[in-house]
């Protein structure tokens, strides 16, 4: 790829970041750093949803090289190559429409990379000046390393031709980036306005444990959901609650859950049997019941606590929506809008479970600080 193309792509990434950076700079919020964190989190959520749209429209190879499109900076410049590929294979992965979807996805990702780089630079500069814990650079530096790793998996997604484990890891890293940004935003919120001690602190420790358990089971379900999507196993079960008319249909777990293999192939290079796709779908569907139980228990325990109740309400609504869209995807034979909404629901669950975790953590800290302060004078007595 020519240097001029790389420069054009870099300029495109800067332009994609200009609008959100301008909004942060011109906002009335005095804490521009905190504002930038939450803007980056919002755009990361949007990128995950658009990434789902890219995957579900089979646009992941709309430009079959990386980081440009046929070695050029945008589909306008590569129009001749794209048209030739489309003419040679009209039902193939390369079309003008798919090329634009894929490149817009990359442009947004580059813009978020610029925002996170800005966060890291600002945090280091402010930290060296003031040592203010609001600008502690550890998390922004971790975010920058994370987004670089995410970019590498984005490249491998294309160069390894949508290999399922690579695409699934790319999805999970995107959701992890969202969780880290939300956690950093929560830290900034609590530094700006420290939480008041909960008047009913007795159950907070249990809420914290359940919130952590919710994060673990949700992460497992996200892997399973990504594995369904990247193996195109969404319609491997065409009934609900049974699968193809059976509670336990014929399944091939060995080939279905062999991680390192090509798309649609076994590790030996043979075509993946349908029973393997059935196993992938069936496991994701049944593990969803465990996720619902654990998250419902977490919501129930968090509800009595005033500081946690708003997040618990949103989490309950998101969980119900996710279950509804999951069932609708099967009943309606995979309509694109419902499938994208299901993908967005997964990102929303990540956001809300992360928020619940940090709020429970800081509520516990707010309870412990006054108790330690109250105990300190007594410890100094002879």
UniProtKB/TrEMBL annotation:
It comes from the Bacteria. It is a multi-pass membrane protein. Pathway: Porphyrin-containing compound metabolism. It holds the Pfam family COX15-CtaA. The chain crosses the membrane at residues 6-24, 36-56, 104-125, 137-159, 165-186, 207-228, 282-302, 314-334, 340-358. The keyword Cytoplasm does not apply. The keyword Ion transport does not apply. InterPro entries: COX15/CtaA_fam, COX15/CtaA_HemeA_synthase. This is COX15/CtaA family protein.
